[in-house]
Amino acid sequence: MKATRRAVVAASGAATLGLAGCTSDGSSSTRPPTGSGESSATEPAAADPDRVALDRAVAITTDLLVALEGAPPGLDPAGRLAAMHSAHLDALQDATGASATPTAPVQAAPPLTPARLRRRELRAQGELARLAVAAESGALARVLASMSAGIAAAMAGRDRVAA
Amino acid sequence: MTVEALQTALAAEHAALYVFGVLGARTSESGTPALFAEVTGAYATHRAQRDVLTRRLLDEGAEPTPASPTYELPTTPTAVGVARAAADIEAGCAETYAYVVANTAGADRRWAVEALTGAAVRQVAFGRPPGPFPGAPDLT
Fold it and tell me: Could you give the angle at the alpha carbon of A68 between the alpha carbons of B114 and A144, nearest 5°?
């Protein structure tokens, strides 16, 4: 399973996530009129002002994935949340021009309950939104903001099902 | 770039406001109260966002882009059709705000992130399954 593979790789620290490719202008691939992002993310990794934000986003997402991996059955029906976070990791990989590593090791956490899962997801959503606002690269900001909105929508979807 | 992005968002809000007004008129408050509440709530949100964008553009010394005389309306003979059309509008607004996020900074970007998130959540409220990248389907 893709999510599991990614989570294990990141959690073990056995390998860094191989983030390759280069960032395209975030606006060039959107439906609205084309325009440039605030800046480009095609510079070498050492000069990338968004390196810390990118690493943090990878760490946040990896942490969510690892937590879901050990979650009780039924907490993530059909693995929807795990699939979303796995897709987010893929996007971070595709949207950046250099390798990224989590800034902090994944730590053991108490078993997830629905309430704890919700708190973790919403905390991550808020942090991704803040990273989006602070990002130098418009393209990266777009990725992070969309990830944040995706988590918010997923939580809304769970609420809708529970109602 | 900021003014251009905000003008794009304002144009999208004009369209959303127009269509949601029509959808509201096509929704029965007594027959489908939940849908009616969602549609009227979305209308109020888009009206507020239009006003914020208008003021912001005036602050920048720009002439806010006007609303078009008319917009293409979806065929919505049923409540399901109304919900689908509403979700489509929100999906379009989410794409617009993702674009605004990429082309603004600071407070404007913060506001756009919130607007993107709101559009994503409303899509779900209108019955669309949540996706991983609201406003940025190219990332999927």
Answer: 25
Question: How far apart, in whole angstroms, are the C-alpha atoms of residue A66 and residue A81?
Answer: 12
Q: Which two tokens stand for residue B8?
A: 């794009």
Chain A residues inside the 8 Å CB shell of B106: 133
> What are the structure tokens assigned to B25, written together?
């008129």
B48 touches chain A (CB under 8 A): no
**Among B95, B110, B121, whose Cβ lies nearest the Cβ of A152?**
B121
| CATH label of the domain that carries residue B123 | 1.20.1260.10
Note whether A38 contacts B105, CB cutoff 8 Å: yes
Q: Which residue has the tokens 């979650």?
A: A71
Angle at A143 (CA atoms; ends B131, B99), nearest 5 degrees? 95
Q: Is B125 on the interface with A (CB under 8 A)?
A: yes
On the 0-12 / 13-18 / 19+ scale of CB atoms within 10 A, B28 is: exposed
Compute the 3-state secondary structure of chain A and give helix, strand, coil in percent, each to the nearest 5.
60, 0, 35
pTM to 2 decimal places: 0.84
Q: Give the model confidence (pLDDT) of B67-90 as tens digits.
A: 998 898 888 779 999 999 999 999
Domain that residue B122 falls in = 2-129
Quick: pLDDT tens for B97-137. 999 999 999 999 999 999 999 999 999 999 999 999 999 99
Compute the nearest-CA separation of B107 from chain A (Å).
8
Q: Which two tokens stand for residue B118?
A: 């709101």
- Give which of B80, B71, B85 is closest to B18, Cα–Cα: B71
* Cα Rg of chain A (Å, integer): 16
Domain count, chain B: 1
